[in-house]
Amino acid sequence: MSNKLEVGGIEVPGRVWIAPMTGVSDLPFRETATALGAPYVATEMVASAEFARGRPDVVRRAAVGEGLPLTVIQLVGRDIDFMAQGARMAQDAGADIVDLNFGCPAKEVAAGAACGSALMREPDLAEALVAAAVQAVDVPVTVKMRLGWDVDSLNAPDIARRAEAVGAKAITVHGRTRNQFYKGVADWSAVAAVKKAVSVPVLVNGDIVDGDTARLALEQSGADGVMIGRGVYGRPWIAGAIEAALEGRGFAEPQAEERLAIALTHFRRSLSFYGERLGLKMFRKHLASYIEAAPWPETDEARRAARATLCRLEDPAAVEAALRDLWLAGGRLAA
After folding, report:
1. Is residue 297 reached through a cis peptide bond, with omega within 30 degrees of 0 on the bond before it?
2. Does 104 qualify as catalytic in the annotation?
């Protein structure tokens, strides 16, 4: 199997993609993961109506930056006109691919705004939204979805077929229903029905954290590639590691000094992008993840203490100093 995927004329140089994640995949994270080998990192979920209206925080989520070889902007919404306008704005902003979110299970999205995974219950509207986005732009439009709303309505193959018929160029399926949220285990084999239903590339998503799980997900689903979500927390190099595993190449997991350099570079990107005060605040979630993913501290109690100490610091220089102390002392913060 080739390690490249073609999406509507766009060549993605790898088949291990990083999912759009609210509060995670902002521009500083995307720059960091891309520099570490990720071929595809989508933006945070961007609300199409608020994007079209120019709400500053939503526009910031769609920030493209300079030097990224591929930009994927994901839109969420249920208004056809706003979806078309949002897609045009995403293309104008520099998106190479526009992805539509039919998979977010969050209550404020699916129940409150009746979009995201709620659209799995409205196949006609889902199809119309894809058609509107496709007609509005010249770049490829893709779709990310779940298996269905619940176990009694596993309609991902039908929605995928409809999406392809109106012009979608790739489909990603999380192997859970909306009502499962993130409980239980992802059913990769259920994604096989979507693969059989369409001819465009299909990505399998859910519970993929390393080369072994990626390999099993591909085998059980027949998918063309995998998408990594929560497995990337604190490990922005994971796409490159999994790609190497799938190709039978060696990959050296970053050790203490390299992890420190990655975390510090990511932190500085956050400060540069948001400004010092907001940049520090926005980075705290990543900071906690870097500590959680490190091979030390060795106990849960020590990890909690390290997270609590570092995430309370208000001065960027103090954060950098504490990070250096933690990393280079093998996980032991100075008293």
Report:
1. yes
2. yes
- The one-character DSSP state at 41 is B
Residue pair 148/176 in contact (Cβ under 8 Å)? The answer is no
Which of 21, 84, 97, 104 does the annotation list as catalytic?
104
- CATH code of the domain occupying 5-247: 3.20.20.70
Token pair of 294 as six digits: 């490190």
Query: By CB neighbour count within 10 A (0-12 exposed, 13-18 middle, 19+ buried), where does 39 fall?
Result: buried
Q: Cα separation of 259 and 193, whole Å? A: 40
**Do 262 and 32 form a contact (C-beta atoms < 8 A)?**
yes
Containing 144, the helix (H) or strand (E) segment is strand 141-146
Q: How many C-alpha atoms does 242 have within 13 Å on its Cβ side? A: 30
Give the C-alpha separation, 155 to 118, whole Å.
Answer: 12
Res 331 pLDDT > 70? no
Quick one: pLDDT band at residue 169, thresholds 50, 70, 90? very high
Each domain of the chain, given as residue ranges in start order, spans 5-247, 256-328
